[in-house]
Design brief:
- The complex is a heterodimer of chains A (280) and B (267).
- With 280 residues, chain A is mainly alpha-helical.
- Chain A is globular and about 75 Å long.
- Helices cover 76% and strands 0% of the residues of chain A.
- Chain B is of the alpha/beta class.
- In chain B, 39% of the residues lie in helices and 23% in strands.
- The longest helix of chain B has 18 residues.
- The chains are: A mainly alpha (280), B alpha/beta (267).
- The interface between A and B is medium-sized, with 23 and 23 residues.
């Protein structure tokens, strides 16, 4: 209980310090009139309170408050990211399991899997929209394509890390399984997979935030207006007039990423049982 | 029928051209407790691995329960205990003991009954739901023994199981192992580099010498049973320890007449 309070305290202090730094920087640069690296004014760096006030006001006339609109958009993007994350994690895991059992496939495929991630997601997103979107069931067209883009970002860390975890299985434990004449299947599920879970989860942490980024970026070429990506694109247009709305959206997007990350950490705590010194 | 029959087993490792074992002949009768002892590099662990079909011999044959070693491994004819307990961190003590039973397809009810029996046997009942890292090294090794014995194998292979433990724990576990062995009547092959441990536990001690790994001699241990902590103070215990020590020192070159005989009989 005390430890929880202390942690909450540390988080609160960190938030206050961050806000203080932002405002201090703003004040110093604005007063001194420094222009390096950029000129500070209420457009380039709106005040923290301006940003938070923006949540309560409607972004457009006769619309609900910004926070209301953003929460709906967040739910939409969260759906894309969650589906992308789930599908990506499964594909990543299955790929790792296949690759660990075949050195030949590993040699043949791994370079291409690595290469796939060197192409910027922004360059691939339009093609996914053009190629994949029409093939999807009508009900998920649009956001389904965005989920595919999130999948693309998610699977990679899962494959690489899980493969590493599956290969790092204790050779003595493998020998023990040999004395039981265990099948490949038993060795996989009773030994390799459980012992690689810490690796899997460290990949899922990376993927959790990547899937949110993937979903937001994926919304841009699809022209979807229902999600955070669409909102960011829109508010970007009006930045010079109302910068606080883009900032407010960024804050919400960051929270979505953090929420995904925290969910993975909580799942890990619930599932992975390891000696304290072996937990990352 | 003998439980283990080793005939003319030679093992050479291609790397470095090492002869780990040369012309090993050994036979184990049911219920025997046989220790393999010798300096490092004498091939005692290799011999154990050959019996367990974890390392194939270069020449010769190994028969376990009247079957080739490979078949015996597939049939689950032996349980094994390594120097490290090799427990699975993500499983509780009870689940670790149940691991081989799951592999054999036992149902939940039957597994639970047996696991409880094994927990009683190694006196860890109250630790059933603990995880391995919450136990001391000695307790972990007891779990490992319970796991190896859970499916009642005819043969128990132990590769320096107490080598990583302190002297006090080791002696206590020696006593425990003996009482388990007396209860279950299984045949044990026990690799160790401790002379007193070998003499205290065994019905026979096989002394090995290195380069190439050979059997330097076999010492019958005629200490009365059941053995207790006091056994270690008896004159006969010291005599036998001395005998094994001399065999180790002589490396099979200067044997007592009766040891010559034993050696001859084995060849």
């Amino acid at each position: 209980m005390l430890a929880h309070l202390r942690r909450a305290g540390i988080v609160a202090v960190a938030v206050v310090a961050l806000v203080g730094l932002w405002e201090l920087y703003h004040w110093i640069w604005a007063t001194a009139g420094w222009t390096w690296p950029f000129a500070v004014n209420d457009t380039s760096m709106p005040h923290v309170w301006t940003i938070f006030k923006a949540f309560g006001q409607p972004a457009q006339v006769n619309q609900p408050s910004l926070i209301n609109v953003l929460l709906h958009k967040t739910a939409f993007t969260a759906k894309e990211a969650a589906v992308g994350f789930g599908v990506g994690a499964v594909i990543g895991f299955v790929l790792a399991v296949v690759l660990v059992h075949s050195r030949l496939l590993q040699r043949g495929f791994l370079p291409y899997i690595v290469a796939s991630q060197t192409v910027p997601i922004l360059a691939i997103a339009p093609m996914v929209v053009v190629w994949v979107n029409p093939k999807l069931p009508v009900a998920i067209q649009g956001w389904g394509a965005v989920a595919v883009i999130a999948t693309y970002l998610t699977f990679f860390p899962v494959t690489i890390n899980t493969l590493r975890g599956l290969q790092a299985t204790d050779h003595r434990a493998l020998e023990l399984m040999r004395t039981y004449a265990a099948s490949r299947w038993s060795v996989l599920w009773k030994l390799r997979v459980p012992s690689s879970l810490p690796y899997l989860f460290s990949a899922l942490r990376l993927s959790a935030t990547a899937s949110v980024v993937g979903a937001i970026i994926g919304e841009l070429p699809t022209g979807l207006q229902n999600g955070l990506g669409g909102a960011i694109f829109n508010f970007n247009e009006y930045y010079s007039i109302e910068p606080q709305e883009l900032w407010a959206t960024d804050v919400i997007a960051a929270f979505l990423g953090i929420a995904f990350f925290v969910l993975v950490v909580l799942a890990e705590k619930a599932i992975v049982r390891r000696a304290p010194e072996n937990v990352a | 029928m003998s439980v283990v029959e080793i005939k003319g087993v030679t093992k050479t490792f291609a790397q470095g051209n090492v002869t780990a074992l040369e012309s090993i002949e050994l036979e184990l009768q049911p219920g025997e407790f046989v220790s393999l002892i010798g300096p490092s590099g004498c091939g005692k662990s290799t011999l154990l691995r050959v019996i367990g079909d974890l390392t194939p011999p270069t020449h010769g044959t190994v028969t376990v329960n009247g079957k080739p070693a490979h078949r015996a491994r597939k049939d689950g004819d032996y349980g094994i205990v390594f120097q490290d307990s090799v427990l699975f961190d993500w499983r509780t003590v009870a689940k670790n003991i149940a691991l081989p039973l799951e592999m054999l397809g036992w149902d939940r009810e039957r597994r639970k009954t047996r696991v409880d029996e094994m927990l009683d046997l190694v006196e860890l009942r109250s630790f059933a739901d603990h995880h391995p890292w919450q136990l001391s090294g000695g307790m972990q090794q007891r779990v490992s023994i319970a796991r190896a014995l859970s499916f009642e194998p005819a043969l128990l292979l132990m590769d320096e199981p107490f080598g990583a433990l302190d002297e006090m724990t080791r002696e206590r576990l020696n006593l425990e192992l003996l009482s388990i062995w007396e209860k279950l009547g299984s045949t044990v092959v026990f690799v160790t580099h401790s002379i007193s441990e070998a003499v205290f536990l065994s019905t026979r001690v096989v002394v090995m010498s290195p380069r190439p790994g050979r059997i330097a001699g076999v010492v019958e241990i005629d200490l009365p049973t059941p053995r207790t902590a006091e056994t270690r103070y008896t004159p006969r215990f010291f005599e036998l320890v001395t005998k094994v020590r001399e065999l180790l020192r002589s490396r099979g070159e200067h044997l007592l007449p009766e040891e010559e005989e034993l050696l001859e009989a084995d060849r």
